[in-house]
Amino acid sequence: MIKTIDAALFARMVVHASAAINAQKQQINELNVFPVPDGDTGTNMSMTISTAAAEMGKKSFHTVGEAANATANALLRGARGNSGVILSLLFRGFAKAVKDKDIIDGRDFAIALDFGVAAAYKAVMKPAEGTILTVSRLSAAAAAAAAREDDGVEYVLDKAISEGLVALEHTTEQNPVLKKAGVVDSGGKGFLVILQGMMDELQGLPMPEGSLEQEENKAADYAAIAAEEITFTFDTVYIVRKDDPNVNLEPLQAYLSSIGDSLVISESDEEFKVHVHTDTPGVALTESQKYGTLELAKIENMRTQAEDLAAGKHVQSTDDLDAVEEQLEGGGETVAQPEKKYGVVAVCAGGGLADVFRDLGVDGIISGGQTMNPATEDILRQINATPAEVVFVLPNNKNIIMAAEQCVDMVEGKRVVVIPSRTIPQGVTALLNMDPDAEVEDNVTAMTEAMAAVSTSEVTYAARDSDFEGFQIKQGDYMALLNGQLFDAQPDLEELLKKLAGEETYQNGEFINIYYGSDVSEADAEKTRDLFAQLCPQAEITLLSGGQPVYYYMISAE
Q: Which of 81, 95, 419, 530 is positioned for an S-S bond with 72, CB 3.0–4.6 A?
């Protein structure tokens, strides 16, 4: 049995863990018992740890402490969703425990797991049983007991996984919703997949086939993909300074999709960043310069990288150029100097929603929402770019609040305040109640109280058949959530909207705002507005094009 772990082995264990959860992320996603199309725990955990795996491939480490610290820092920057944030906290505590260790044995590993659990529990306001917290806690306790019997790291990790699997099965009984659905907790499952991936590397087992294709360029850097499996040759990433802050990037998105794949475009008012796999990076850069000034580009040949990796060679990468890498990935970016007292950044998905926030004076827009939770570093980048003494962050989604809160202590020279908005309408109302002349605490109180008075319904579709809270839901049914709770599900959208409009929340509302999504035509949206105007005659109805994915409508009442 393996007794100790050195820095190189720890780094390989992180990479293997990332590959393992990437291979099983869809199965973990499908454990989501709520049938809305955002069961993304597996995806969030996979994308979070992939940032650490990429970091492990960039450099070598002299001690386990150094490797664990680099892992924790990368996880924090890449944390997505609540599950990703909790995973980053588990590794943060782990890194703290081993910071001075050159190598670690089973006893060190057990203590580090316990430190990780403590960090995660401390960050969660209301820890619930039957979650990743339960599974990690019991795994750590088993590791501690095992270390008293045998301080070999393989023995300790084996006992931690074995007890974790038992704890995972018990989550079904601990959570009534999980029990009814007959599934285990998705976050707990993801945690154990990661531990098992680390164990597999410890024991010399191969990584899962097909597990190394990643959604984002950072993870693709370490992927051992066979050259013949690569569709496009060049991994291309670049930043363009916009000529017009309101420029429409949809034509560019369509064009780049026609010459490549794995396309991701993120933007702020001042610039946009593109990641695309293509055979013609020069063409992509030329086309993008129609929208602004090219500032920085990183182009890597994935075929030669794959060949070098397969041959056991060092993979040459532009990441070897420290200055370029730091600028492009955000590590070397400067913090904008304050030019005003208050600034605001907001998370939203959809051009119409972005326009609403910009019109209300938001400094930075972070693209994200359901099914695409932004990473902590995405939020941090916009905070750093905001020239204000105090930056309010509006997550506008319950699964993004924790990632935003991680930024509070990561910025020097300005104060970061997270207003925990759970929906877009809450964020809009909070923003409308911000007073540029008021004190910070007074603004926090006013914004928080104002958004608490906002009720929001979200109309989407059922991603799978489900028996949930008394509703027999069929895949493809229309569903309405009211303040995060399932309101109703119907095969007919108009019937669902009629029932929603007749609910007390809307019958008593003075102002009703209807944001329609990217899959709804303007004509159909106008019919919905007319329906609410007819059934809610006391309210002032406003119709807005949100352009959001996933949700056909977001409808607020105040």
A: 95
What is the rounded average pLDDT of the residues 339-352? 91
Q: Are the C-beta atoms of 350 and 550 separated by less than 8 Å? A: no
Sign, CA torsion 308/309/314/319 = positive
Pairing mode, strands 292-301 and 234-242: antiparallel
Q: How far apart are CA 420 and CA 408, in angstroms?
A: 13
370 band by pLDDT with thresholds 50, 70 and 90: low
Closest CA to 456 of 431, 422, 483: 483
495 is written with which tokens? 């019937």
The answer to whether 389 touches 338, Cβ cutoff 8 Å, is yes
Q: Tell me which residue has tokens 């056909």.
A: 552
Residues 346-369 as b or e (16 or more Cβ within 10 Å = b): bbbbbbbbbbbbbeeebbbbbbbb
What distance in Å separates the CA atoms of residue 234 and residue 125, rounded to the nearest whole number? Answer: 44
When pLDDT is averaged across residues 259-263 and rounded to a whole number, the result is: 75
Q: Which residues pair with 51 in a beta bridge?
A: none
Question: Measured between alpha carbons, how far is 415 from 544 in angstroms, rounded to an integer?
Answer: 33
Kindly report, residue by residue over 185-216, the tens digit of the pLDDT: 999 999 999 999 999 999 999 988 654 433 33
CA 542, CA 499: separation in Å to the nearest integer?
Answer: 19
Q: What sign has the CA pseudo-torsion 524, 530, 534, 540?
A: positive
Q: Express each pLDDT in 144-178 by its tens digit.
A: 999 999 999 999 999 999 999 999 999 989 987 78
CA angle 502, 503, 504 (to 5 degrees): 115
> Do strands 540-545 and 511-516 pair parallel, antiparallel, or not at all (unpaired)?
parallel
Residue 219: per-residue pLDDT = 31
Confidence of residue 312 (pLDDT cuts 50, 70, 90): low
- Indicate the average pLDDT of the chain: 85
139-to-127, 326, 388 alpha-carbon distances in Å:
17, 37, 44
CA 253-259-260 angle, 5° bins: 80
Residue type, 401: I
- The alpha carbon torsion through 328, 280, 47, 4 (nearest 10 deg) reads -80
The answer to whether 87 touches 47, Cβ cutoff 8 Å, is no
Q: Are 456 and 554 in contact (CB under 8 A)?
A: yes
**pTM for the full predicted model:** 0.67
Helix residue ranges per DSSP H, 459-513: 493-501, 504-507
Cβ proximity of 132 and 190 under 8 Å: yes
d(CA 343, CA 357): 12
Looking at per-residue confidence, does 482 or 467 come out higher? 482
